[in-house]
Design goal:
Mean pLDDT: 85
Number of strands: 32
Shape: flat
Number of domains: 7
Helix content: 25-40%
Structural class: alpha/beta
CATH architecture of the largest domain: 3-Layer(aba) Sandwich
Radius of gyration: 43 Å
CATH superfamily of the largest domain: 4-hydroxy-3-methylbut-2-enyl diphosphate reductase, catalytic domain
Bound molecules: iron/sulfur cluster
């Protein structure tokens, strides 16, 4: 990559404009352009390129102004008739076989500037295909290079530009070992994608013939563009919209560097926007990368790099205040000015605060310009109060942003200085594994931005608090995280670009581990915990006790018989549990949920005794009596003889399920947890005792029979 000496002189320290070594006309395009230039120099009057010589309207317009016309394939013969001295130029993409043959057979004057890399593909397809062999061309079906390649195949041709089209074409071709396809790609296709498609074809066919036909120029250019994008804060890709290789360069750079711009000429480059981005992000380091497609003329690249440099220089005339030599001939004022030190934009300097207002701070830097820090450059805190934080006479460290000679001021930034200092904290945090506090402030492609003090840290989606998933999360999911406060650990840094990557997940994992270790140190049988129900299965509920999970077996959830844990708890419930059993080695914990206090029999005996009267609910009717609920979980039997004074055939004659009645507790069998009830005992007090005895005897008889 090239840096420019000129820029070294005028760019602020740490700011760079880098141009990819392989940018602009490639070998094949240069060859075709040279061929046309030679024809012009030779004085040819009627030069026609068959199709556009290169995909660059600006360059084509210049050629047209010099008398070079474009001729469509179908117009070759009529053009030759009109201009018998016409000379046709075959461009680097090549032509379909029939058109080339026609030029030859008709004895027309032509120069073949087909790129040798393209010619090689023609030969591969021609010699490796026959009527039975299918040819797969990976590329753009409307591209003239692909149309040319296609014409050299002898059998069926399938043109695929993506994985879906490739899969569809393989389905049509079928999986016949006797007829494996051959595969080539357009010279400018994306290398990585083509490698993936090769793997796919190798899986499907036993003997496919796959040819590496991406030209090395493209390969190198794509690799280099990717590397440059990796170290650049902003990337410019220059090329025409129709240029396939330029578009691919853009895709590659955009995947790596978010601030990537595509432009055909210098006029299309949004310099003002890039300049703003540069000024917002420059803090001692900033790299602008430039690459260009194979059809971009050198002068366009040159113009863009100069204008980019100018934009980043901010104010080149006043970037540096030079210190002139002090001479005896100088006036006193000239000597005073000459005694001032020299300062450059981008430099970190110390000054003394001379004035503080609500909106700005003035700083004496020991130069003739007045240093001013505007409110927007003082702090990242939107509620920051200037007068509470700065005092006249204090020293202050700042970054020099911009000189304005006309107004005699120099704009300064404290924020950028803070970013600088904080960067060191970030690096320390990375080296020492320190946890940083902050919050999510922005959702970006592939993750979120976390503001840790003045520094912005990128958190990949897989390191946020979102559940892990094979697919990248949707943008809305990431957007929902904005505002979430949290703690992160720095997991990677790029010192040159001052970029840091952080992880919330690592902090959560480590904290969980620490909590687990502490738990196992202190856990013991019988200990009470409050936990959160994490999941339910048919045999119990798993409860998070704060880093460690325990299980409450279904039988431990309720004193009643239940069919599923969901009858008692649901996921997310906070419940009190106690440790019933432990296996420290296997890290297993059995938990209890139901307690003696919640035991229905305990509740019943705490509330009632024999002779007490209770409001009971009929829950089932049997031939020998009715069962009634006294408290939830404890039912008593009202024997048929104890339902009413008259003799009845069956309990349903006078009682129904769900009905609430008053009944006397006539007996409590502690051992078998049984309760006898009588309605009749409440109806005839004199007969009650007799009735109760009868009922107890009858009940015993029923039990014995059963
Ligand atoms: S990109 Fe490669 S194949 Fe295409 S013209 Fe240039 S050198 Fe030839």
């Amino acid at each position: 990559m090239k840096n420019f000496d000129m820029e070294k002189k005028i760019l602020p320290q740490g700011a760079k404009v880098l141009l990819a070594e392989n940018s602009g006309f490639c070998f094949g395009v240069r060859r075709a352009v040279d061929a046309v230039e030679k024809l012009i120099a030779d004085g040819e009057k009627h030069i026609f390129t068959v199709g556009e010589l290169i995909h660059n309207p600006t360059y084509l317009e210049r050629l047209r102004a010099r008398g070079v016309e474009i001729c469509r394939e179908e117009d070759i013969l009529s053009t030759a008739e009109r201009y018998p001295d016409a000379v046709f130029v075959i461009r680097a993409h090549g032509l379909p076989r029939a058109v080339s043959s026609m030029l030859e057979e008709r004895g027309l004057r032509y120069v073949d500037a087909t790129c040798p890399f393209v010619k090689k593909i023609h030969r591969i397809v021609e010699s490796n295909s026959d009527e039975k062999t299918d040819t797969i061309i990976i590329g753009d079906k409307n591209h003239p290079e692909v149309e040319g390649i296609k014409s050299y195949a002898h059998g069926r041709v399938f043109i695929c530009s993506d994985e879906k089209e490739l899969a569809e074409c393989c389905e049509i071709i079928g999986n016949d070992d006797q007829n494996c396809p051959i595969m080539v790609s357009q010279t400018t296709f994306n290398l990585k994608k083509y490698e993936n498609y090769q793997k796919l074809i190798k899986k499907l066919y036993t003997k496919p013939k796959i040819f590496d036909t991406i030209c090395s120029v493209t390969e190198n250019r794509q690799n280099e563009a990717g590397k440059l994008a990796g170290i650049s804060d902003v990337m410019l890709v220059l090329g025409a919209k129709q240029s396939s290789n330029s578009k691919k360069l853009y895709d590659i750079c955009r995947d790596i560097c978010k601030a990537t711009y595509f432009a055909e000429t210098a006029e299309d480059v949004p310099f003002a926007e890039i300049g703003r981005f540069y000024r917002d992000n420059f803090c001692g380091n900033f790299t602008a990368g430039i690459t260009a497609g194979a059809s971009t003329p050198d002068d366009i690249i040159e113009e863009v790099k100069i204008r980019m440099t100018n934009e980043m220089t901010i104010n080149s005339d006043a970037t540096a205040i030079e210190t002139p030599e002090i001479k005896d001939t100088m006036t006193f004022e000239e000597m005073l000015n000459a005694s001032y030190k020299s300062i450059r934009a981008g430099e970190r300097v110390q000054g003394v605060i001379t004035s503080v207002t609500n909106t700005e701070v003035h700083v004496d830097l020991g130069i003739k310009h007045t240093g001013i820090i505007p409110y927007s450059e003082l702090s990242f805190d939107p509620n920051f109060k200037v007068e509470e934080n700065f005092k006249v006479g204090d020293n202050i460290d700042v970054v020099v942003v911009k000189f304005n000679d006309a107004e005699g001021i120099v704009s300064l930034s404290k924020k950028r200085m803070d970013v600088d200092k904080n960067w060191n904290e970030i690096k320390d945090a990375f080296e020492n594994g320190t946890i940083l506090n902050g919050k999510v402030v922005e959702a970006v492609r592939g993750g979120v931005i976390f503001q840790a003090g003045p520094n912005r840290v990128f958190i990949p989606a897989s390191h946020t608090t979102l559940p892990r998933s094979e697919n990248a999360p949707a943008e809305e999911e990431l957007t929902k995280l904005i505002g979430q406060e949290g703690r992160i650990k720095i997991i990677d840094t790029n010192d040159q670009r001052r970029r840091a990557v952080g992880s919330m997940r690592v902090v959560i994992r480590e904290e969980r581990k620490a909590a687990q270790a502490k738990f196992w140190e202190t856990v013991e049988e019988g200990k009470n915990y409050t936990g959160t129900v994490k999941s339910l299965t048919a045999y119990g509920a798993f409860v998070d006790l704060g880093g460690v999970d325990g299980m409450v077996h279904i039988t431990e959830l309720s004193w009643k018989h239940i069919k599923h844990p969901s009858e008692v708890v649901k996921v997310g419930d906070t419940i009190d549990v106690f440790v019933k059993a432990l296996d420290v080695e296997k890290k297993r914990i059995s938990l209890g949920y139901k307690t003696e206090e919640s035991n229905p029999w305990t509740i019943f005996t705490g509330k009632y005794a024999v002779e007490d009267i209770a409001e009971v609910k009929i829950v089932s009717l049997m031939p020998f009596g009715a069962f009634a609920e006294i408290v939830p979980g404890v039912d008593g039997l009202i024997h048929i003889s104890q339902i009413c004074e008259q003799k009845i055939q069956k309990p349903a004659d006078v009682l129904s399920v769900g009905e609430t009645v008053a009944a006397k507790i006539t007996a409590i069998d502690e051992e078998n947890k049984k309760v006898s009830l009588s309605i009749k005992a409440l109806l005839a007090p004199e007969a009650a005792e007799e009735a109760v005895e009868e009922a107890v005897e009858a009940e015993e008889a029923e039990t014995t029979e059963a």
